[in-house]
Specification:
The complex is a heterodimer of chains A (291) and B (381). Chain A has 9 helices and 14 strands. By secondary structure, chain A is an alpha/beta fold. In chain A, the strands form 2 sheets. A 7-stranded mixed sheet of chain A has the order 3-4-2-1-5-6-7, sandwiched between helices. A 7-stranded mixed sheet of chain A has the order 9-8-11-10-12-13-14, with helices on both faces. The chains are: A alpha/beta (291), B alpha+beta (381).
Chain lengths: 291, 381
């Protein structure tokens, strides 16, 4: 079980011949992800880690049936690569690439909506459904199969918290990175909805950060839906000054909007336990799941 | 990237949006030349990228060329919120009948652009929204159609205009949308958009923030940013040139880490234990030893930094690579300030060994390391 990807996910890798694409294809294969083909324009006919490479997505999916794509293509061409996958019927597209312009992302998301496809990212570490499939760049050994769903706007902070959970013997169902950009394919509300219907997931860890109001909207959703699964959160950026972009394109406090304090208060008002430090998450979770 | 008012106004003019006649001056004599070609009275406006310029005394008015010259001299000697004024924009003062607001920005939740308009302007949009929420018009823009001329007319109508005025206003709103799209603006606004006593619409002030990720499509502005002609500090420009994310803060503990979220959480943890971070610095994924050296150099170039905290969670990045990088960097940068290093993940043992052999202690827990560096920073005071 878990959400979005699983045993039936058959993926292609766009940008498979690049340093990142090739390296992570190997690791994803080692994890057990079904990768049926790779695409790099101009490198068709070659083979990498026993995966056949094609010039176009069209050819790749003619020869090998696939339902997902993971993209390691440089930013100026990444939105185009995602559109190519959408047009050729991929229903789950993970965009690892960072620095895609907002304008390109906005039109891409509109096309994805029309095609009824799910986009994860851009600027994401990807997604892992424990023991089934990994479409991403996260180190697999820090995770462990279990019942906690994780959703986050950041990469290494997710690893930090996941490793903490695993050390405490708290396993995970699916961990997914929404991406650090202001415009992403999924948001917290979308993901909470998916975890709600997943039988394996018994609690959710939500890792937010400054910028935008997606955490606040998640809090509103939790109240409105009387969300039954316990949610524990951490919000990064309590000490961030306004008007400065903290690494991620989306992590910026504009005027009074997007502060950590606003997010924390709203989540707490929805009954979400908010950790003061990343390492406090396992303890909060243990208390909640026991009672 | 924020554009200066004069840059934004020049772009608007190019797109047929009326702006007050004016020119840019970097000296009093230049100001005289410009003012001589304009009709008094004048507005003399400091070109700085900080909010609240007006309240800080960055806008002066002048009734004659001589006064404009004096105002320019005064502004050029000023610092607005610690930013020295390097140039001023001198323009004809417009006769205001009414101040309006119009802007376009992004809606993260709905993944589209939206326009905000208000028949009240001249103050910050957040303030307008707080004072007169009923006057705010929020108009989502369909990503596939864009803002069409009829949409712009709908907004103009909602702003309370009819007849010729309505038609003119609609055209201006549509043109601003075109500027926003062509320049990859994550925020573009005319505030105030003035209706003059002659019944014209004029953008009296304009703000454009270009999406940093789209700067490759706007090389002239990227060049300006990398040359340090903007709002960034020396360290921030140096970081940008080296593809590092750096933000200057006002504490004394230098911070380096991998991943934006982890670095933010590191700052928060330092603050939780009573310490004060001097900066945010994210080296990103898979940084080379050269990159780590540059990061160290940038952080240590801030004289306020007394101690250093390096927080690395090696996933794909190997800890032994990082350790070698730190040693190399330390030698190159001649770093003598105390360091606390937290290093976990892939090849952790090897990395730890490399550093402990030369007497640099390595910790495993981020909290423990944070506490330790805070202790050192306080002891050093």
């Amino acid at each position: 079980m878990g959400i979005i990807i699983g045993k039936n996910t058959c993926a292609i890798v766009q940008g498979i011949t690049g340093a990142q694409g090739s390296f992570h294809t190997k690791l994803m294969l080692e994890y057990g992800t079904k990768i049926v083909a790779g695409v790099t324009p101009g490198k068709g006919g070659t083979v990498i880690h026993d995966v056949p490479v094609f010039d176009t997505v069209e050819e790749a999916v003619e020869k090998h049936s696939a339902n997902a794509s993971i993209i390691f293509v440089p930013a100026p061409f990444a939105a185009d690569a995602a559109l190519e996958s959408l047009e050729n019927g991929m229903k789950t597209i993970v965009i690892i690439t960072e620095h895609i312009p907002i304008k390109d992302s906005i039109s891409l998301m509109a096309c994805a909506k029309q095609a009824n496809a799910t986009i994860i990212g851009p600027n994401t570490p990807g997604i892992i459904t424990l023991g089934e499939s990994k479409l991403g760049i996260m180190p697999a050994h820090i995770f462990k199969s279990g019942n906690v769903g994780m959703v986050s706007r950041s990469g290494t902070l997710t690893y930090e918290i996941a490793a903490g959970l695993t050390r405490r013997n708290i396993g995970q169902s699916t961990c997914l990175g929404l991406g650090g950009d202001p415009i992403t394919g999924l948001n917290f509300v979308d993901t909470l909805k998916l975890f709600k219907n997943d039988l394996q997931t018994r609690a959710v860890v939500l890792i937010g950060e400054i910028g935008g109001n997606l955490e606040e909207l998640a809090a509103d959703y939790i109240i409105k839906e009387k969300y039954t699964k316990p949610v524990v959160a951490f919000i990064a950026g309590r000490s961030a000054p306004p008007g400065k972009r903290m690494g991620h394109a989306g992590a910026i406090v504009m005027g009074k909007a997007g502060t950590a304090q606003s997010k924390i208060e709203r989540l707490q008002s929805a009954g979400v336990k908010v950790a003061e430090k990343p390492n406090d998450i396992p303890e909060l979770l243990v208390k909640l799941v026991k009672t | 990237m924020k554009l200066y008012e004069y840059e934004a106004k020049n772009i608007l003019t190019k797109y047929g949006i009326p702006t007050p006649q004016g020119g840019l001056a970097t000296s009093a004599s230049q100001a005289r030349e410009i003012a001589n070609k304009l009709k008094p009275p004048f507005a003399v406006k400091a070109q700085v990228l900080v909010a609240g310029r007006g309240k800080a005394g960055g806008i002066l008015f002048a009734n004659s060329v001589e006064e404009a010259e004096k105002a320019t001299e005064k502004l050029l000697g000023m610092q607005i919120k610690d930013v020295p004024v390097k140039s001023v924009w001198i323009e004809e003062k417009i006769q205001i009948k009414k101040e309006l607001y119009f802007g376009i920005t992004i809606d993260r939740f709905n993944r589209n652009y939206f326009a905000i308009a208000s028949a009240v302007g001249g103050i910050e949009i957040e303030e307008i929204a707080a004072k007169t929420p009923e006057k705010i018009i929020r108009f989502p823009i369909n990503p596939q159609q864009g803002l069409r001329a009829f949409h712009a007319r709908q907004i103009a109508r909602k702003m309370g205009y009819m007849g010729n005025r309505f038609f003119e206003l609609g055209k201006i709103l549509k043109r601003l949308y075109n500027v926003g799209m062509d320049y990859d603006a994550e925020l573009i606004e005319m505030n105030p958009l003035v209706e003059t006593i002659d019944g014209e619409f004029v953008a009296a002030d304009a703000r454009i923030i270009i999406d940093d990720n789209a700067l490759f499509r706007h090389p002239e502005y990227k060049k300006r940013l990398l040359e340090g002609e903007g709002e960034l500090t020396t360290q921030e420009v140096e970081a940008l040139r080296n593809d590092l994310a750096y933000v200057k803060l006002d504490g004394d503990i230098g911070i380096i880490g991998n991943g934006a979220g982890l670095v933010m959480a590191t700052l928060d943890t330092i603050q939780y234990y009573g310490g004060k971070p001097a900066n945010f610095l994210d080296i990103g994924g898979g940084a080379s030893s050269e990159k780590i050296a540059t990061a160290l150099k940038i952080v240590l170039s801030d004289p306020n930094v007394k101690t250093l905290f390096i927080n690395i969670l090696g996933g794909i990045t190997r800890c032994d690579d990082v350790a070698r990088g730190i040693l190399e960097a330390k030698a190159k940068a001649r770093a003598t300030k105390p360091m606390v290093i937290r290093l976990v993940g892939t090849n952790e043992k090897e990395g730890k060994q490399i550093l402990t052999e030369v007497g640099i202690p390595v910790l495993e827990s981020m909290e423990e390391a944070a506490q330790k560096v805070v202790e050192i920073s306080k002891g050093g005071r």
